[in-house]
Amino acid sequence: MTAAPTVRSRAPQRFRLGALTLALACSCAGPALAQNPPPDASKISPEMTLKLIDLLVAKGVLTRGQADDLIRETSASAAATARAPAYQTQPGAVVVPYVPELVRQQIKDELRAEVVQQAKAEGWAAPNALPEWTQRISVYGDLRARAEDVLNDGENYQEFPNFAALNAGSGYDVTDPLSNPVPTVNTTKNRGRMRLRARLGVHAQIADWIEADLRLATGSDRSPVSTNQTLGAGGNLSKYSLWLDRAYLRLKPSDWLTADIGRAPNPFWSSDLLFDHDLSFDGVAVRTEFDLDPDFRPYVNVGAFPIFNTDFDFGSTQRVDKASSRDKWLYGVQAGADWKFNDDVSLKFGLGYFLFDKINGERSTPCLAPSSKDVCDTDLSRPQFQQFGNTMFAIRDIVPASGAPDGPQLQYFGYASEFGVANLHAALEIASFDPVKVVIEADVVKNLKYDGKRIRALGPLNNFKPNLEPLQHDGGDSGYYVNLLVGQPKIAKAWDWNASIGYKRLESDAVPDAFTDSDFHLGGTNARGFIVGGALGLARNTWLGLRWLSANEVTGAPYSVDVVQLDLGTEF
Q1: Positions of E strands within 208-256
Q2: Domain interval for residue 12
């Protein structure tokens, strides 16, 4: 009967050091040991062991102190072994080499990490785990309920033409204003309304450098500057529409370069003096940010955006010669920097120029326009959306119909000014009173394309000096906004708070009235006044806000309106 193998715990010095080397090699080599047979431990020298320990220190696996302890422990064990009497291994005996506890723990940790990594990669870590693509999809959104009061001054002028309504129809008959009264803006009667804003978006990480984003939003109409839905506007508790608010691809081939293609958020750093905060941009935008210094990071943003694209069949009643395209574009460029002076003080600034190409109205060639089916060659130069304030003029050069000199003459109206807006925007943030911050913001705009002489030659229909005969046009080309905020600029948790006070002045033709703030003076230009507000955090990403916007006209007939807004908002 064959005797059982003898197990011995002691071995010659050379074999012990070799076993340690082999154990350390196992801890570094990982899966490679499964492919190649391990080296003969008896042939591994102490010098090789010491080199391997130094390699583990260099790679951060062991600290220098741990390595020194390991060498001392091994040397002491080897010395004790050397003093022991030599002996021969029995045939068939199993020799168990000594592996220090530190190395055994290192081997276990690396094996555990490899198993977890493989489980995640192959999707078997959790039996009912979601597919991998779902990990690249995220949902976000926000919800805001608003109570709003519009308080008009009873002394306001009552006959401001509603040019947006005039241009949305089939033309206004200028020959019969009595039977066809001009629609006017409500400037004297107060209004109260409940409003809701709901936005829901989906973000997808397609690849390391490609993202996609879709967002739906509420809205009472197709307005580009408001996603507010007035409750009860449809009557009888009817449901509301959802609009495609954003849909774009974001390409980020490097850390310093980003390109958005589609309907994307505002690529420029601006206040609502120039662009309303709810405005999205159709087109292509490229943003660059240069990380030259952690405390000074310059950036350059450029973009091209179609504001209006001519209907493919425009001039459908002209069977022989279709009207030429008159596409409208916005071209923008902005350069600036984020400048951090120290841990408590930082400045952000941007200087930009925004050209609104062909947004102004043009006088047509002489044309007949007795019916809604008639088309004049500059009809598309009228604004497809506008708010209030820009100087307007009649764009059709109407020739009375032969045999009916007093017949209908349908007219449209366009912007009298061209727009090329220079913009300087800056914000100074002081965090010396942590967690309270102080933010001082300033914004200035000037329309470099404004030409008062040209406007007067077109025959303007609004923005006159008050109480003067004959009427004299009194438009303007500049605007500015200053604001002081104290508290937390972004409400993130319960009891976060902020309070602000600002002053805004925006002359009639400083910017296109279609894209500026939709709340101040009920939207548009030719307005000046104060904005006071504050917000208080109620819970995580939930706040209660209150604003008072008090605005008067800059020029022309009196028009004073206060807007009070109480908001309850949250985001996720």
Answers
A1: 210-217, 229-230, 243-254
A2: 7-122
